Task: structure prediction
Amino acid sequence: MPNTLIHGAYEISQDFSGYTLDQIELAVAEVMNIEPGVTSVYVDGQRVDDRSSFVVQDRQRVEWMKEGGEKGIGEVATRELFCRSFRVNETEWEECLEAGLVTASLKHTAVLFVDDGAECLERVRRRRESAPSLDRLNETERAIVDELIGGAHLTGQKIADEASCNFNSYFKATLAALVKAGVIQNDHTGYFMS
Result:
């Protein structure tokens, strides 16, 4: 028998019996405009906190609601809302700050522009995905990458100067090898990390 799923103005009647709340949320989040992990879940009017183990039964009504005073993520968010919405752990947050994410303090709470945070988080996560190749870098390659981490966009000469390296044929060949390996990119105006 079908279950009734509700979030705001969205309603779906479909059989989801036997699935956990997490599985259901993942399946319908985009269609029903649910921010995963941000809203509270109620089954037959009772709040359920353990979404990963609660299994929905036939004909149960599942409703996602925001708690009173809780707003969706907009252009600006607190650190807590941003981290919860994008599932950012403490390590990733610190890496975003190191990569140049700008925050401000408002009543002792860190706030940030959501688009800036999302772009920075994407760079951090992409860099983490390529991390195994970064572990095998030699000293010159590491110096180049270190200068470009954080969103820098520099010419080869500027990278060499900042890294205290000679801008010679070896350095240029090292830049070319890093581009070919996909570790850094070059758009003909300078080098940068993707």
